[in-house]
Amino acid sequence: MAEKESKTVLERTYTVPLRAAFRNAPSYRKANRAVKELRAFLARHMKSEDVRLGQHVNDFLWRHGIANPPPRVTVRAVKDEEDVVRAELEGKEYKESVRPIPKEEEPGTLKERLLGKKEDEGEEKPEKAKPAPEKPAKAEQPAPDKSAPAKPAEKPAQKDGKPAAKDAEKPKDTAPKQ
Hints:
Shape: elongated
Strand order of the largest sheet: 1-3-4-2
């Protein structure tokens, strides 16, 4: 794709203070806030609503992570005939930020991915109704061994209707140590 060469209307260099903008932001939003402040600063000073940041500026703002953006950045802003402002780090050539291309033709289901089948968007095949999975019949439990010890019977309830206290809950060694 050949891009049209647009005539430069205005070119300026700014040192943009960012610390005041992200100082009160939570740490998980500081870099986002710095980017918004940079765009707002350039829109206000270059008198344009369409502000595009270059890849080098973006990398510089995000270099130390989301919680630690730089306190200031020096950018070169160029405004063209169509009122588009393109900003890049001072001394760097403008390079558009990379945006991922959405994958529309990726198979949706696991079966389609494994088989490598791709359905056309216009042709939709009716899905077959899947039969409900059959529950296996319960296996008969073997009769309990008579040689195995029987479970102890539960203790009878006290007079209040509360169950009797279990021996396991009482501490075994209640004698004071000397």
